[in-house]
Amino acid sequence: MQLQTNSLKQKNIKKVQVTYNASLDAIISSTTSNTNTVVLAWREKSRKHLKMTSFNVAEGIHAFDYHSQLNLIATAGINNKVCLWNPYVVSKPVGVLWGHSASVIAVQFFAARKQLFSFSKDKVLRLWDIQHQLSIQRIACSFPKSQDLRCLFHFDEAHGRLFISFNNQLALLAMKSEASTRVKSHKTAVTCVLYNSVLKQVISSDVGSTVSFWRIDTGQKIKQFTGCHGNAEISTMALDANETRLLTGSTDGTIKVWDFSGYCHHTLNVGREGAVDISQILVLKKTILVTGWERAITVFRLQNFNHFFIQPEKWKGGIEHRGDILCAAFLPPQTLVTGSYDGEIVLWNNSTEKAHYVLHPDYQRLLKSKSDTEPQKLLGAGRSRSPRPGPNQAALGAHSLETHTEGNDAVVGLHFLEARKTTAKTGGANLVSCGGSGYVRFWDTRKKQLLAEFLAHGGVGSIIMSTDKSNQYLATGDLDGRLKIWDIEEYCLNSSKSKITQAPTLIRSFRPHEDQISSLEMCKLGGHLLIISSSADCSICVTDVCGASVWIFGQAKHWQTENWFSLPKRDTNLMKSDIQEESIREIPLLSKKESWLDLPEHSLLDKKNKDDTTFNVRPSEVINLGIKYKERNIFRKKTHNLYNGKVMQKSPASPKTYCYEGTFRSLSIGALKELPEVKKPAFLLDPETYFREKPEEECSQIPELPLLSETLKAVFDEKNLFPKEILDRERRAKQLCQETSSEVKIKRNKKQL
Fold this sequence. Notes:
Methylamine Dehydrogenase, Chain H, five-stranded antiparallel beta sheet, 11 helices
């Protein structure tokens, strides 16, 4: 061992880890060399010297861990790979885990579940399923960002806590208890959800590289594509302008263009044969923009889509961000904005692909040519701000310090408010951003001004958001699975010198998921606005803006959307007390045995379906979705009063009224005072006149005339008869018919008389 140490010093190779394993009764050491990367040494009884065996890993490793039950050694590779080794097979690894886009610096087994933690230099934590060799969870943007760091990694399996140190900071991640009865839409964590308005279908993707298609009106799965990107997870998706093509972005560094039959038309080589973290795909008329893992925009021009494999082209604007670009948004005809990890929002001209301005919560700066000013000096001058907080900043309180820490200003989502047509003249916000600090910010990109910011979710880190096409509502979701819906129809419609810190009206606050909300989508169906959310808890939920029950795609019984909206919408001008109560109390999901009277005041009353085979089913297994017994009884009394004449209620805070209408709400039912005299109808007084049977008419017995064929036959076949005799026979037959008919008429007249 002494000789090996001396040779390592001469080659300037670091020995990163040495440990003794009792189950193997061996010493395991690792280095950053590509030869003898992992060395196992043990002593045999008959020998004095140690016996050694080694593995060779390309570019070396940073760390390793051993699982005694599986008899596997996991290595954290400098080449972004996590390899699994059998200690007795040194020729090649028994498994390779792909997915990290930077060097892996720490690995540790979760022995009880046969899973593996891995952590990379780009602050991405992954949890792997060893048996299937798949990434089942990914956590990013939750750690402090610094270039040079010393990291220590430890998982306390007994208490389910993971400790990660970053130089002088310590991060603690606690595991949550799992609910085994939870309805799951996918087998693995759902990463993205889209709505196709043409087909009225919901499209979802997961970390297992599966794409599923669902009916929005029943929640029924239509079809699914498996193995779209092999074993790599699908991180994001997008639809083209006509909603006839689906684009899926994966951590393997590729984007694939599909039709809805499952045929792949193009493969876009985003990562240039390397793994990257694609966060968003923006499809424009002439280009496809991709962001997520570097400071520059990756662009594909549609005019070059002549081949199956397509390479990216150079973005003319170059690099203007200091951090990785996480998201982008486009406002016709040519305004493009991109948000980065350090909180900057850069405004671009999409036609010329040149940047002209930078927005930040703490500063704004005009971009100049690189020859005039150095980027570092310009950035330093732009970041200078007054040491004392202004009157608007004072309202933030103690949380203001948190928003300025590194990573908390990361811009995760950007949305243009395209429905606001009058903002060009009157001013007002036309851009919304959200990110790592739990804040939502409203910007005026024309005047380059931050108009408002408010804390939407406190103490949960990064959040995501979505808006409807009419820009009336804003939905936000956090890492705890909580979803909030805000009324922004009249929020920041006019520009002002002072920044607004008051939040808009909160309509709903509930928790439809048990884990991080990964994607949000808002769509209209039947004139009603629906919110579709996906989560790392493997479920996809849908609900209404105004308080309908939460439904899960893939549940046992299918729903019918026409039964959701049996009552008119609730007035959005809620009392402050209602909003506070709503934010604390969860939306209850009831079982079949519970009555609809148990629904909270902000829920729509369900209408019973005549078809017993398809009816409303509320997944009662969702945790933390109950209300107190006292509150339920109070609501029973209120609902009872509603259906006994007290239908209309007025909100004290608004002159508007809202009501719950029933089918028979306007009918008055009571006992009759006296029984009116009923006259018998004429058909009862004289039944013979109306029900007398008519006499049967005697049928006249008219002899049948001979057929024409027989007559002709008699003319030509009967030689003994002359034509004169034949005519006499016919004359006598007609006379007999007339006499018979006259006799019948005489008998009929006599009978009537």
